[in-house]
UniProtKB/TrEMBL annotation:
Annotated family: Belongs to the HypD family.
A single GO molecular function term of this UniProt record: 4 iron, 4 sulfur cluster binding
Keyword terms, alphabetized: Iron, Metal-binding
Pfam family membership, one: HypD
Metal-binding found in the keyword field: yes
GO biological process, one term: protein maturation
Protein's recorded name: Hydrogenase formation protein HypD
Length: 381
């Protein structure tokens, strides 16, 4: 497919790998802060093709995975109400709460629906004035503009039966939390291109300077990721710590000003809990006072729900980059996509799901340093 195949070229990938090998003279640990990048890395075996000096650490880049357990339980409580039509993207339906998930609520008679846009939920509210329609508004900066637009549109239409259950999180404070953790091993970041396509890169230079780490904005195809790694390794070897944009076809320094204005009109920055990680200051958004009437958490009075994570699930350590999924004893045994203990096993951007889907079932490393075969760079299906 044009504009995709070009970024799967095995010959170009081999050249980038050769340059990374010739550049890296000592161990470096890089973190990708995007679940989509994690899946691409594992699918194409990029981490196993890199020289042994370069380690990739999977970060908390899966928005479904970092949605806290108490918010999942709030969603379950709201979705079970007889007057509610609960709308969500499909990933969230299998995420385990305390004892059940949204699929179970649907099976028990709840009106739970998969939608492809928050505006679909607005349309449902418009066509069903006798129902309370709730959209599960999760995600990083990427999904925030559409969710802001949905509540903005609902107010314009005068819909009193539409609301959002909000659990939005922001990437820069998460990077700050990672870098200030006492056990941090990260020496550079591959920043998420889709987040920066919305917000731009203005928040990153201060992080790079303060923590003396390179931050390279990258895309999601194999060549995008390899180019990001190449640039990050070059900076590390030279003792540099700058923000570089290796995804210029989608990212501009100012981002998308119209999207940013919509976010700032509807949402305000707040502290937010991250599943498996804890509370990170200024790491989320909530509805502003002007739109507070559309806040499902207050509308349905579920703010008092408190929860505890299952002890056997180590997804929090996976999300912090402290362990790989295969280091968890439950991985692939008691925890599978059919019987998940945590969101990292069922989300399409979860690291555990990537390792399970692409059969990375043990922590035994594959031989490093070989070139990428064409059939692996362009897998069928």
């Amino acid at each position: 497919m044009k504009y995709i195949d070009e970024f799967h070229d095995p010959q170009l990938a081999g050249r980038l790998l050769d340059e990374i090998r010739s550049t890296a003279t000592r161990p470096w640990a890089l973190m990708e802060v995007c679940g989509g990048q994690t899946h691409s890395i594992i699918r194409h075996g990029i981490d196993q093709l890199l020289p042994e000096e370069v380690e990739l650490i999977h970060g908390p880049g899966c928005p479904v995975c970092v949605t806290p357990l108490d918010v999942i339980d709030k969603a379950l409580a709201i979705a079970a109400r007889p007057e509610v039509t609960f709308c969500s993207f499909g990933d969230m339906l299998r995420v385990p709460g305390t004892g059940r998930d949204l699929f179970r609520v649907k099976g028990e008679g709840g009106d739970v629906r998969v939608v492809y846009s928050p505006l679909d939920a607005v349309d449902l509210a418009r066509r069903n004035p006798d129902r309370q329609v709730v959209f599960f508004a999760i995600g990083f900066e990427t999904t925030a503009p559409a969710n802001a637009m949905a509540v903005h549109q609902a107010r314009r239409l005068g819909l009193a039966n539409f609301s959002l259950l909000v659990s939005h999180v922001r990437v820069p404070p998460a990077i700050e939390a990672i870098m200030t953790a006492p056990d941090c091993r990260v020496q550079g970041f591959l920043a998420a291109g889709h987040v920066c396509s919305v917000m731009g890169t203005a928040e990153y230079p201060d992080l790079a300077e303060r923590h003396r780490v390179p931050l390279v904005v990258t895309g999601f195809e194999p060549l995008d990721i390899l180019e990001g790694i190449r640039r990050a390794v070059h900076q590390l070897e030279r003792g540099e710590h700058r923000v570089e944009n290796a995804y210029p076809r989608a990212v501009r320094e100012q981002g998308n000003p119209a999207a940013v204005r919509m976010i700032e009109e509807v949402f305000e920055v707040t502290d937010r809990n991250w599943r498996g990680i804890g509370r990170i200051p200024d790491s989320g958004w909530r509805l502003t006072d002007a739109f507070r009437a559309y806040d499902a958490e207050h509308r349905f009075d579920v703010s008092g729900i408190r929860t505890e994570e299952p002890a056997e699930c180590r997804a929090g350590e996976v999300l912090q980059g402290l362990i790989k999924p295969t280091a968890c004893a439950a991985f692939g045994t008691t925890c599978t996509p059919r019987t998940p203990l945590g969101a990292t096993m069922v989300s399409s951007e979860g690291a555990c799901a990537a390792y399970y889907l692409y059969r990375r079932m043990t922590d035994t490393p594959a031989p490093r340093g070989s070139r990428i075969p064409r059939e692996e760079m362009n897998p069928v299906g």
